[in-house]
SnoaL-like domain-containing protein
Amino acid sequence: MIYGQNFSKQLTKDYIMKNFAVLLILTLLASTSIAQKKNGTVFNEHETIDKTRGFWDAVKNGDTEKVKTFFADSVVIVRNGNDWKTSAENFSKNSSYWTKNFVNFKVEDLPGTYPDALEYKDGKMWVQDWLLLTGTNEKTGINLDLHMHCLYAFDDDGKIATFIQYYNNNVFEDIRNAQTTRENGKVYINHPHIATVRKLLNTYVAEDVEGLKEFFTEDAIFSSLAGGYDVTMNLEERAADVADHFATRKDIHFEQVGYPDCIFYELNNGYVVYSWWNYSYTDEENDKKVEMPLMLSHSFNDDGKIVREMAYFSTNHVTD
């Protein structure tokens, strides 16, 4: 009898769980159906898209009167979240900024994108596009390569009543800054970092690999013009490279050309020493003497250690 009661309870439990599972599935289906409720239609060809293209064509041509024809008398402008109202007259005049300040100014669809026209159920029309604006600023020579996302809201007369733009403003800050004169630090003809570079080269002449490593941080980066800007070595790789040099070269010598400069860069809050040398050695394999001009760049940390070394030289002197 007790066995029968437990069995009955188990059947009741299974029944409840199965019905709960069915109810959960129906609830999920219902919520999914609600989430996918249609609220309008998207077009990839539409007269409003033609109007936005016509607007940008007028901008490219510097035709401010034509620009004005695409906008309502009163327009809401939103740029990177900042909004204000203006008139079509003022907006069209300001649109001449592009052709007055940039040569070879172009506006194209960002590669891989195309505009959408969205007609909502309430009859409102919007267009959104993703643009690439290019050109060269005439005053500063700075090249424009600007990605811009635009949204256009049309009124009942088919005019643009709201114009929204999103873009990275850095290039315009660079253009403004480039038209000013600003100091960016100091230049030293004598400095402890210059002495460090001289000691470094003397250690190289002494063919002391372990001694060379003491001048650099453990995570120092090395590169050269001959090796390519995108190719770097770490400290251990550079030490092995130098050891290979010492195995095949003798009579190593550096003759200073001019004088080194130690520059403190305010913008990056760091010191860099630039130095120029005539570098020479004798190739032990064929007893050939090699001479080449060499420019070195050494960046320092706050502890006076070198964090980056860049060497500028031509391999023609080695292969000839």
In short: Residues 149 and 217 are 44 Å apart (CA to CA). The longest strand covers residues 270-283.
